[in-house]
Specification:
mainly beta; six-stranded antiparallel sheet; 6% helix
């Protein structure tokens, strides 16, 4: 018997910027199914140090799971075993990998859709990726790379 598996690939060559919706929604009531479509995007940030900020607020905390395939535990395992990026990358201490859903299409006034706040965050420390996040109010980071997550499927025979 064969079982289908998926591997994640961090593609930096694909844009994460929303694109214009290909149709006019104003005359398409009830026919806007793909307007709410999402994809998974990633950002790789470099840690720069502490901020001198007195700004306060409430942070949205990262999750442990975005989908069946995207979990912090599985990402940590996969990142140890292979280079999942489509560019030459050696993690530096403090690098922060953030994965989240984003709408594919730009918003259209008068046609709301759900907000997307959920994300996973990993930080590279002590030679491995760890389930952790930076505080946006006290930690300063700079985006290093970004892109779209692609899935590669493969079949493996069961014994």
């Amino acid at each position: 018997m064969c079982k289908q598996y998926y591997s994640i690939h961090f593609c930096a060559c694909a844009s994460i910027d929303p694109i214009p919706y290909p149709r006019n929604l104003e005359n398409a009531e009830g026919k806007q199914d793909d307007y709410s479509d999402t994809h998974l995007i990633w950002k790789l940030n470099r840690y720069l140090g502490n901020k001198n900020s007195s700004m306060m607020g409430e942070m949205i905390m990262p999750l442990q799971r975005l989908s069946e395939e995207i979990t912090t535990d599985q990402l940590i395992i996969d990142l140890k075993q292979e280079n999942m990026f489509d560019f030459s990358y050696i993690p530096k201490v403090g690098d922060n990998l953030i994965i989240r859903q984003a709408h594919i299409y730009k918003p259209i006034k008068g046609f709301p859709r759900p907000d997307l706040y959920d994300y996973i965050s990993l930080i590279y420390r002590n030679g491995s990726w760890q389930d952790d996040f930076y505080n946006v109010f006290s930690d300063k980071t700079r985006m290093y790379k970004k892109g779209v997550i692609k899935f590669r499927s493969y079949t493996q025979k069961s014994i």
